[in-house]
Amino acid sequence: MHELAVCQGLMQQVDRVAERERASRVTSVVLEIGPLSGVEAQLLKEAFPIASAGSVAEGAELLIEQAPIVVECLQCGARSEAKANKLVCGQCGNWRTRLVSGEEMLLKSLELERRESDDAA
Q1: What secondary structure does DSSP assign to the chain, as a single string?
Q2: Domain spans, the chain
Q3: 102 Ramachandran zone, left/alpha/beta (phi>0; psi -120 to 50)
Q4: How far apart are CA 110 and CA 104, in angstroms?
Q5: CATH number belonging to domain 2-67+102-114
Q6: How far apart are CA 32 and CA 71, in angstroms?
Q7: For the whole model, what pTM was predicted?
Q8: Which residues pair with 13 in a beta bridge?
Q9: How many angstroms separate the CA atoms of 112 and 64, rounded?
Q10: pLDDT tens digit sequence for 3-46
Q11: Are the CB atoms for 39 and 5 separated by under 8 Å?
């Protein structure tokens, strides 16, 4: 299951952000995943507890938002949403398009609990 490897990479990012922000705990992780990313959201959700075990994100909620597929027409220049199996221009119907978004997986946000300051009086 390649989603476990994807989650392990995600956890490296989460750990770096949590360390930089001096977080003691991550309570939620929000991802944006495009339908053409090759990542199965349900399998990612199943792999997340395994990948986050023993980390600052253990027990965190994983929220997944679907990114739209957006194409840019090489004929008329319009940008429009498209379907995974029909990447045509929404304005003129031309099939010569460039994919603008829909294949990404982005760490959109984290909800953190911060540590108490070590030098608080």
Answers
A1: -HHHHHHHHHHHHHHHHHHHTTEEEEEEEEEEE-TTSS--HHHHHHHHHHHHTTSTTTTPEEEEEEPPPEEEETTT--EEE-BTTB---TTT--S-EEEEESS-EEEEEEEEEEPPPTT--
A2: 2-67+102-114
A3: left
A4: 18
A5: 3.30.2320.50
A6: 18
A7: 0.82
A8: none
A9: 17
A10: 999 999 999 999 999 999 999 999 999 999 999 999 999 999 99
A11: no
- Write the CA distances from 55 to 15, 26, 33, integer angstroms: 8, 9, 23
Q: Which amino acid is residue 57, in one-letter code?
A: A
> Do the Cβ atoms of 36 and 67 come closer than 8 Å?
no
